[in-house]
Write a structure and sequence with these properties.
InterPro entries: AceGlu_kinase-like_sf, Asp/Glu/Uridylate_kinase, Asp_kin_monofn, Asp_kinase. One of its GO terms (molecular function) is aspartate kinase activity. Belongs to the aspartokinase family. It catalyses: L-aspartate + ATP = 4-phospho-L-aspartate + ADP. It contains 13 helices and 16 strands. The chain has two domains: 232 residues, Carbamate kinase; 137 residues, VC0802-like (2-Layer Sandwich). α3 runs antiparallel to α4, α4 packs antiparallel against α6 and α7 crosses α8. The chain is of the alpha/beta class and 454 residues long. The strands form three sheets. An eight-stranded mixed beta sheet has the order 3-4-2-1-7-9-10-8, sandwiched between helices. The chain has a six-stranded antiparallel beta sheet with strand order 12-13-11-14-16-15. Strands 5-6 form a two-stranded antiparallel ribbon.
């Protein structure tokens, strides 16, 4: 029987108007599909606020962390009161809100007294936003007459114990999804789950990294044998570049799994870097759509694309770090082992390596899933570790689609710090952050016509 998994991002759970639109979409698709699963993100900005609250507690900024917590509570109270009339549903949600925030206050007290903040404690705090929103959406769906049920994500998304960026244990996820969700689906019930959150086999809360709700949706789709996955967001689809940097960026109609994976790895913030992997083997299509523009088909992601390899579909940039050392030989294997041991949680392996007898330059990508402070933190750690190296932030630019030699299309005023072919023979370049806007705008012209280069 046809099964659809839908995920709604934080921009669509930010206010009552958007949430009512979410419920309309769920209702419409429940009529079109025999079985439906819904994954929701926290209110826009809530996860970052929760992280900041516990960080302020660690810094013993008592007034600051309490003010942030009070603001978060006020935002959720306003949302609940605008969606639910006085009665049992509203009372239940307000009690749940206060219970979750009381637990957060207790956690902050522990952190205040110890001065230490563990990754496990960060996860416990940051999971609150998704938990609250899943309860709100499930209750709202029930209020509107939909056969919906809240399902706790921690009961299904079982992970390892790598807090803040946990890896799902796929066999256990598949087993739990079949045991818990299929009976509900067989009864015509719509399960509604929080994204982003998992749990270890011992029941400790974990999180899947920034954008982890995407991964929750695709894991469930693969586990349940879904026919499609739809990611609902506030834009019409996946763009050919970041519109904030390239004003004439356009929606890409189709992408392959490989292309969307590269886009996610090299900086596109619309999808978790690991979210495509569960879809590849079962060949489950993914579509990115805007609930406020249903006339637009959005972007379809599938195993192949009719114009694959003939056109640059997108240009994208991701944060990175450039490391260089002169006048000394380098044992690359030993050096990389040292870096992985000390900074592996913040950086991927190098995407560009240039080495001669007494000179070396490397460029590392800092994935968007590590958060906005990851570049500064990785740089700080490397500066302490590698005192004789030049270390500076860069932007790593990649072209998705046709394989082109990017530097041929750039103004000579843009200084290339490094250039190389990636593992799949795509050209990558590293530029200074101040040059990224101009570089992307110049390279984006390649998306306007068919182009291929042998």
């Amino acid at each position: 029987m046809a099964l659809l998994v839908m995920k709604f991002g934080g921009s669509l759970t930010a206010n009552a108007q958007q949430l009512r639109r979410v419920i309309q979409i769920i209702h419409a698709e429940s009529l079109a599909w025999r079985r439906l699963v819904v994954v929701v993100s926290a209110m826009s900005g809530a996860t970052d606020t929760l992280r900041r609250i516990v960080e302020l507690a660690q810094q013993r900024e008592v007034g600051a962390h309490r003010r942030l917590l009070a603001g978060l509570r006020a935002d959720h109270i306003a949302l609940i009161e605008s969606l639910f009339p006085a009665g049992s549903a509203r009372t239940h949600l307000l009690q749940l809100l206060d219970q979750q925030l009381f637990n957060l206050l207790a956690l902050c007290e522990k952190v205040l007294h110890s001065g230490a903040l563990s990754a496990h404690q960060r996860d416990a705090a940051m999971a609150i936003g998704e938990r609250l929103m899943a309860s709100i959406v499930a209750t709202l769906a029930q209020q509107e007459g939909l056969p919906a049920a809240l399902v706790h994500a921690e009961s299904i998304i079982i992970t390892d114990d790598v807090h803040q960026n946990a890896h799902p244990l796929r066999d256990l996820v598949d087993e739990r999804a079949e045991h818990i969700l299929l009976p509900l689906l067989d009864k015509g019930i719509i399960p509604i789950l929080a994204g982003f959150i998992g749990a270890t086999q011992n029941g400790e809360t974990t999180t899947l990294g920034r954008g982890g709700s995407d991964l929750t949706a695709t894991l469930l789709a693969a586990a349940l044998g879904a026919d499609e996955v739809w990611m609902w967001t506030s834009v019409d689809g996946i763009m050919s570049a970041d519109p904030a940097l390239v004003p004439n960026a356009r929606v890409i109609p189709t992408l392959t799994y490989e292309e969307i994976g590269e886009l996610a790895f090299f900086g596109a913030r619309l999808l978790h870097p690991g979210a495509i992997e569960p879809l590849i083997q079962p060949k489950i299509p993914l579509r990115v759509r805007n609930p406020n523009n249903l006339d637009h088909d959005g972007t379809l992601v599938r195993a192949d694309s009719p114009i694959d390899g003939k056109r640059v579909k997108a240009v994208t940039a991701v944060d990175g770090l450039y490391l260089a050392r002169r006048n000394q030989p380098l044992d690359l294997v030993t050096f990389l082992a040292q870096v992985r041991k000390n900074v592996s949680s913040l950086m991927a392996d190098p995407v560009i390596v240039a080495q001669s007898y007494r000179r070396a330059a490397l460029v590392f990508v800092v994935p968007t899933s590590e958060g906005p402070q990851a570049v500064a933190e990785a740089s700080r750690q490397l500066q302490a570790l590698l005192t004789d190296w030049e270390i500076q932030p860069v932007k790593v630019i990649a072209a998705i689609g046709a394989n082109v030699d990017l530097h041929l299309f750039l103004d000579k005023k843009i200084r290339l710090l490094a250039s190389a072919f990636s593992a799949n023979e795509r050209r990558l370049i590293a530029v200074q952050p101040a040059d990224v806007r101009a570089a992307l705008q110049q390279l984006h012209r390649l998306t306007e016509s068919d182009y291929s280069q042998s």
